[in-house]
Each structure stands twice: as C-alpha cells, then as structure tokens.
Specification:
Elements lengths: L1 H15 L20 H18 L5 H73 L12 E4 L2 E4 L21
Antiparallel strand pairs: 1-2
Helix pairs in contact: 1-3, 2-3
C-alpha cells in the first residue's frame, strides 16, 4: 500500500518536470527584397526540413524527451541497485523511487541543456539556408552594421577603441 502511494507521487512529480521546446526556428525570417511571398513560403518549408536533418532528424522536443527518459531510467536503476545492496527488497523499492526522483530532476536539467543545444543548431542551419535563398534573417543589435553615405562603417558598440597594453614579463624572464 505504501509503495503504491510512493509510486503515484513519483509519477506525478515526474510529469511536472516536462517542458516544451519550440518546434521551429526561434526567430522569424522575412522575405528578401523583391522575393514573392509564395516563394518565401516554399523556401521556409525547405529550410525547416534542411535544419531538421542537420540535428539528426528528431525535433527539439523529441531530443529533449529522449534525454529526460534516459537520465530518469539510469537514476532509477542506480537507485534500485544501491537500495538492494543496502536494504534488500524493500530497500530496492525505496532506492528505485529515490533514484527515479533524483534522476528525473537531474534529467530535466540535462534535457533542457540538450534541447537548447539542438535549438541553436536548428536555428543556425535554418538561418543559413534562408540567407542563401536570398531572404532576410534576424541579426542581434551587437552585430548590426551602420551605413553612412554608401560606405560601411562598424557601429561604435561592436568595435573596441582601446586595447590595454600587455602585462609586463615576470621577474627573471629573459628573451
């Protein structure tokens, strides 16, 4: 009876750890100058497919869920083994529950990082494809260039104006 309560609680806690990641690019792309919207839509679909193949054919959500399930299963197995070694059958059940709980918590963090990495790879592939097709892609403000009278000039925020001198050589250093 106690074991059923613990397993129900464990199941409820594991379901609350699930998160959802985006299933497409993080930012929107816009049609390139002079590009037809229907051509843009076709390129968008093609580039989404290209980006998906670049991250192994699994969506970001599938990669997140696989990472979470694997880490939780490993935690359960390790906890059961430790519990069985220290407390026999009852210890194995308690250890499995604790292992699943801690494995799920660790797995949620690992899965989040895995999902973020997959999303970054997906975004990079998608933006490269859309840019190559002649469309506009988002650029962070720190990377933006300003244009003045037809000549390209880097904005002052992106180019340092002062470089400090190198440190002096250590005492006793000879060239």
């Amino acid at each position: 009876m106690h074991l059923n309560r613990h397993m129900t609680l464990l199941l409820m806690l594991s379901l609350t750890a699930c998160a959802t990641n985006p299933t497409g690019p993080s930012s929107m792309a816009l049609p390139g100058t002079g590009k037809d919207f229907n051509a843009f839509r076709a390129d968008d679909l093609s580039c989404r497919d290209f980006a998906l193949t670049q991250i192994g054919g699994k969506t970001v959500n599938q990669q997140y869920n696989a990472s979470l399930a694997t880490t939780t299963a490993v935690g359960t197995a390790i906890g059961a083994a430790i519990g069985a070694a220290t407390g026999g059958g009852e210890g194995a059940a308690i250890g499995a529950g604790m292992g699943a709980l801690s494995g799920g918590a660790i797995g949620a963090n690992t899965a989040t990082v895995s999902g973020m990495n997959a999303q970054d790879k997906y975004d990079n592939a998608y933006y490269q494809c859309m840019y190559a097709a002649g469309h506009k892609i988002p650029v962070p403000a720190s990377m933006a260039r300003t244009y003045s009278q037809g000549s390209q000039r880097a904005s002052s925020a992106s180019v340092p104006t002062y470089y400090p001198p190198p440190p002096p050589p250590p005492p006793g250093y000879q060239r």
